[in-house]
Amino acid sequence: MCALAAAVAVAYAPAQSDDQLNNVHVQPPSSNTAPTSEPKGAEAPPETGRAALNVHPGSFIRMNVDLVLVPVTVTDPMNRLVTGLEQNDFQVYENNGEQKITSFACDDAPVSIGIIFDLSGSMTSKLIRARDSILTFIKTANPQDEFFVIGFNDRPELIEDFTSSVSDIQARLATVHAGHRTALLDAIYYGVNEMQYAKHERKALLVVSDGGDNRSRYTEGELRSKVRESDVEIFSIGIFDPYAPTPEERMGPELLQELSDDSGGRLFRVDDVDEMSDVAEKISMELRNQYVIGYKPTDLTRDGKWRKVRVKVNPPPGLPPLTVYARTGYYAPLQ
């Protein structure tokens, strides 16, 4: 099943809103009839093409021998993670044309994760809490995940290269200090570039920042194009000041929201810095509980054009309307 071993399998009920992991697990219907889709955790049948194509079930949206894989997160109206859904609960559309789902999985596959840590002057009073939240995120991740850390103020700097050692990252984070201005766009661009050295198919960035950009060389348009061309999801923890003194800081929430949405990730707004570690743990759980939907597009033209992708979920009986987070599209291959 698409759920953590530590989570309790319960049917959806509003009274469960204080669930420890903020998860809702959908119980499979009790019936003596044969299942309509492959059970979770079972080996994929050859016709899905997953084994034959040697494509990891956790891959981010990409074309690979005419197979598109889309990672998906589903939440309920209380913003709780929804696990346990089945293949027939989803529909996928490419350029508004419905596609036939050929593979479906929800595996806790390892991820290559880049942490983009704001060390500008406005983070001075939030530095300790932000650092603690990053360590919480790493400690609750899959033990096979790998991480790098980029710190930024006037310019981005690689603080720690790819490693799975929590102690190494903790030691490096203990030496950082906040000061100067904010080159947020440059830092995220650097993080996306750094993913070319990742060893895992799944890739994500965690951005921890409190405001907009006032120092970068890259423009917002250049960064958004870079994100669209990549297979990297962006999750953001935004510690925003509603009374921010500069236009750049006031635009911070919108900037991170757009980047996260384009990539299929999410922005989490934090009003109280004491909540940062809880939010970081929630993001870690989401990365470990994504559905991965595969389909063979009806349009196989290799023209390099942008293909819009939309994923729709049809809640099983008894569930309220659910929200889907998925990447908005991909570029078709040229050859």
Written account of the structure:
The chain is of the alpha/beta class. The chain folds into two domains: 14-100 and 292-331, no CATH class; 111-287, von Willebrand factor, type A domain (Rossmann fold, 3-Layer(aba) Sandwich), CATH 3.40.50. The protein is 21% helix and 26% strand. The protein has a six-stranded mixed beta sheet with strand order 9-8-7-10-11-12, sandwiched between helices. Strand 7, helix 1 (127-139) and strand 8 (146-152) form a beta-alpha-beta unit. Helix 1 packs parallel to helix 7 (276-287).
Task: Tell me briefly what this model is.
The chain is an alpha/beta fold. 21% of the residues lie in helices and 26% in strands.
Considering the chains and any ligands shown, give keywords for the structure.
single chain; 335 residues; Rossmann fold; 2 domains; 6-stranded mixed beta sheet; 7 helices; globular
What's the order of the H and E elements? EEEEEEEHEEHHEHEHHEHEEEE
Mean pLDDT: 83
Shape descriptor: globular
Largest sheet: 6 strands, mixed
Note the topology.
Blueprint: E1 23-25, E2 68-75, E3 81-83, E4 90-94, E5 97-99, E6 101-105, E7 111-118, H1 127-139, E8 146-152, E9 156-163, H2 166-173, H3 184-194, E10 202-209, H4 220-229, E11 233-238, H5 247-250, H6 252-263, E12 267-269, H7 276-287, E13 291-295, E14 306-313, E15 323-326, E16 329-331
Parallel strand pairs: 1-3, 7-8, 7-10, 10-11, 11-12
Antiparallel strand pairs: 2-13, 2-15, 4-5, 4-14, 6-13, 8-9, 14-16
